[in-house]
Write a structure and sequence with these properties.
This protein is mostly helical. The protein has 32 helices and 4 strands. Helix 14 packs antiparallel against helix 16.
Amino acid sequence: MSTYSDLRQESFQGLETLATAFEGLVRNWKFSSELTGDVITPLQGSNWSGDAAESAATAVTTARNELDAAFEEASAIGKALREAHTELAAARADLDAALKKAADHSLTVDANGVNVSWPAPTNEADKHDPSYEQTYRRLAQEVGTDISKAVARAEAADAAAATALGGATGADRTAFRPSSGPEEQGKQAADLLKLAGNISDAQLDQLNRLLKDHANDPQFTTAFYNRLGPDGFLKYYGSMATVSAGKDGRRPQAISDLQKNLGLALATATDTHNLPHLSDEWEAGLRKAGATRVEVLPGGNNRAGGSVQPYGYQILSNILQAGKYDPHFLNPVAEHVTQLAEMPGFFTSTPWIGSDLDQMKLLRGPEGGFNPMVGVLDALGRNPEAATKFFHDQKTEYNLDGSVKSYNQANDYLKNLTAGGGQSPLQDILPGNGFIPGGHAEAPGVHALGLALEAATTGRASDASPDAPLPQHTRAMAEVMHDVVDRFGNGDGPKLLRKGADFADLAPGLGSLTAAYMGDVQSAMGGYDKTLPTYGEPATLNHNNTVKLLGALGRNPEAYGTIAQAQQAYTTAHIQDVILHRDSHGAQFDTAVFNAAHPGGEVAGILTSARTDALVNGMKDDAKAYNDSIDRNVKWGRKVWDMTGGKLLAPVPGAVPVVNYLIDHATSSYYIKDLNTMDTAVSSTGTGSDAVQSSVKMAVERAAQGTGLTQTQVDDLSQGAVYAAEAGESHSQALFTLALNG
């Protein structure tokens, strides 16, 4: 079915009859079940033994397997025939509609369906009317286009049927082999992707089904990507997406599904733990193709002749946002893309025009951006091992073509990715900014950077369940956290986090990091107190940089709520740990309790001072945002408790699980009430101080239950802890002047 004449003359009634017959055959299939019930089951119960019995059993079982395979083959053939009939009949209906339109307007179509002509004018008015020819020429072009689309749809359906039927029957003519094996099916899927812009909706659905069904099969995925080659993979997919940009119906969602399925399959094919997997040469070829413009738009690579083509990495970017990747594959790609993005204007200096970006809208990010850094950072955010390596290990430098230039170079990715102003690798071309970069880091890249940093420092993937426990900090994770605190707690770092600044959207994520490292934060605040426990390897944070970072984050309501909840839970756990192990402290027991309360007071004091400063200086309307954040981030209090107190207290006989009561009380104490112009500072500072003091007092009182301490001793301890917390607050309020310098 490859010509206009074929499509014009064929009714496809015979194809429908054949499809119906195969479907009926499948519905009424009983051979295998009859063989099992009438032969195999009686044979197994006959007690017949010996060589002949074993041969008979083998022969009958083989026959049943062949019947099962025949059923699968018949099912696949029936399905392929039905899909072919549906598409071919639809193509015929499209052609009939085009020919009816021609007839309605007195147009004539030649025997090949190529030339469409219109009648000559029959009166003087039409002869001298310029719109006569213009109108008919437009109608002829429309009819010609409709005919071409109908024939192309029939050709695509014919090709899809041939591919599907070939895959169903296989090459072995001596036995039924409906499932041609994962490698053959991978090649079949690759051939469908090679249809690129000519793929039909039915073929695209078939491709998505194959990829989805075999996304975790290394034989299928490796064969699929090997058959395409790295450059072909990007070209065919890019062409398919650009041609689909103007289509409506299910096509945009199908392309979105294809992006996800390609990403999942790529992750499987590049996992070095799988056999087989793609070679290092294939991955090197992908890096080379990523830094090369891929011709997916008509007109070549120059503006005078048509469209400017995207880089391969701009096509790959969204695909990387699905799948769990082996660092062996992901990190070289991430490093290469980052080094290219660090070159001024590499991805953003192209003189794009609106029509180009519209045609590539299915290749661009969710917010319309076209910087591949977004996809790379998003992929790192879902792959913590790769993220930690990316920000921690010595870097490999790559040449423009993706080949290795040098190893073991100083890692400056965090510094470069957080650069302010026009040097930012996170600049992007977004709708509404005139198709030129904005001269600063854009929100999609900043958000993705936050996900990558959180994965690198906490070991938690961005798509993991919020309730999933955090792994203990490794040395590498803790060292990345140390670098993050130094970057945003020093120099221009605090200013970059302020409301409206380039990296303001990063503040909530840094609040989560700070909460996860609350033991290290309080250790940095506590100075000489070496008893504060950390969660895994210590980060050894710099005191001054920690102070400035807390000051910057306290101005952000979301970060504030996260850190405040974590601080309360950590201080509570530490105080209880001291009380429940009081014998080890001897005569210095009360001093140990006071020391446990002091650094928490310092953290709370900086947070409260920062919140007060924000509310007094133009952010009064954010009072509700602060209150809502405290509510919303209760989970962080419980998470930090699980990371510290729960583990510390679990082995202690008689330990009282008081965290829920303390967190709920601290939450209500932290609320800002009755805020007005005259008492903003008083109200904000007072509520913060009340929350710290009351939680410290309750931590002592609750932890002392069942310990044998007298009420007088408990009162003395709790009051002393309150004084220690107050002293910490007072000290940190003075320290806050350092944060203000940010």
